[in-house]
Amino acid sequence: MPELDSTVKNVVNETIEPMGISQIRIFAEKFAKIPGLIKLTLGEPDFNVPEHVKTAAIESIKDNDSHYSAQKGIIGLRVAISDYLNKRFEVDYDPETEIVVTIGATEAIFDSLAAIINPGDKVLIPTPTFALYIPIVKILGGIPVQVNTTDDGFRLTGKKLREVIAKEGADEVKALILNFPGNPTGFVYSKDELQEIVDVVKDKEMYVISDEIYAELTYGEKHISLAKLMPGKTILINGLSKSHAMTGYRIGYIAAPKGFVTNAAKMHAFVVTAPSNPAQYAAKEALTNGIDDPIPMKKIYQERRDYIVDQLNDIGYKTNLPEGAFYTFSKIPAEFNLTAIEFANKLAEEGKVGVTPGTAFGEGGEGHFRMSYASSMDDIKEAMKRLRIFTENLKN
To answer: Which stretches make up the Aminotransferase class I/classII large domain (predicted)?
Structure first.
């Protein structure tokens, strides 16, 4: 095994070097080593990819579809994405010029920020939220401005947004990142709440990156895309990982005005050239003939959600009913005198249940923990039994 030569030990990107990997992954990997632990950490659907979607990928391989696709993705998939977005969310995008197929939503987020940020630019990030936004902004030379939304029910209000922009300087803020349905909180913005945000940013020189990867997983009102209310300034991020249980296929996409997509597509081409063909044909099938595939999955998620939220509140962990996604975000009782990380470690070691500490999702997550109910009901029921015993022991 080669050892790093001493002459290059200090040749390193000084922005990346001090960064750790995602706390979500750290705790998931750490807890996986504990024998008998029930892991409710990762947002990984426990369903299989629908059979007709798998068949489409297999047929692509059999047809020797092994050459580079168009850099923005095969046109058939981009047409399917355009049709899907129009049918589901009443937004219109030209598949030729306004859609880019990416390696998951993560690449879409990176490409989008890379097309916006210059060194020193500020990006507003309401927290708690998806863990990767903050390090990506830093890597690109931007300044992430975390906006703690805990006191507002984990929602960014128009009032708070206006205050933050005024404080940070309207000419310095270049983007706002919204994630809804929310990870880790499961909240969903209503049309009125989105309109508040639109009213604040519509005359500002800033984009809104709207990460709507959980759009198919809402349990009450139908998801409303920000792009419907503000198409000219919204960068819509979505994909098939959560809706069709296709996490390993790594298909996401950007939908935005041509003037933005032109530069985002350049970054996409520099980073990955093009997505995998079999995965793209699978995604095309999912959005063409499998548009209703998420419905039975969502029904099962909702049953799990109702059970786990009832149990968490009964045991003593204040938990709001998630309106979307497949996570609960619970308050750690102050009497325990434990930070989120301390609580998660203690629960794993003593209670044999793996959860993600709220601090993995930014400053607004302290004092909370996330559980994923993208796991079997048997595992969830056993986890709740163990949590109850663990909690009783903590109190004694």
So the answer is: 37-387
CATH code, 104: 3.40.640.10
Using CA atoms, how far apart are residues 291 and 341, in angstroms rounded to an integer?
39
The backbone torsions φ and ψ at residue 253, rounded to the nearest 5 degrees and listed phi first, read: -165, 155
In a domain, 34, yes or no: yes
Closest CA to 230 of 206, 252, 261: 206
Q: Are 204 and 165 in contact (CB under 8 A)?
A: yes
Q: The whole model's pTM is what?
A: 0.95
**Do residues 39 and 112 share a domain?**
no
Number of structural domains, the chain? 2
Comparing CA positions, the residue from 122, 118, 193 lying closest to residue 154 is: 193
Secondary structure class of 389 (helix, strand, coil): helix
Please give the single-letter amino acid code of residue 198.
V
Question: Which of 261, 289, 317 finishes a domain?
Answer: 289
Structural domain includes residue 101: yes
Number of helices (H) and strands (E) in the chain: give both, helices first. Answer: 13, 12
pLDDT digits (tens, 9 = 90+) for 139-162: 999 999 999 999 999 999 999 999
Same domain, 300 and 284: no
How does pLDDT run across 290-311, given as a tens digit for each residue? 999 999 999 999 999 999 999 9
Contacts of 264 by beta carbon, 8 Å cutoff, 6+ apart: 100, 111, 112, 114, 115, 235, 254, 256
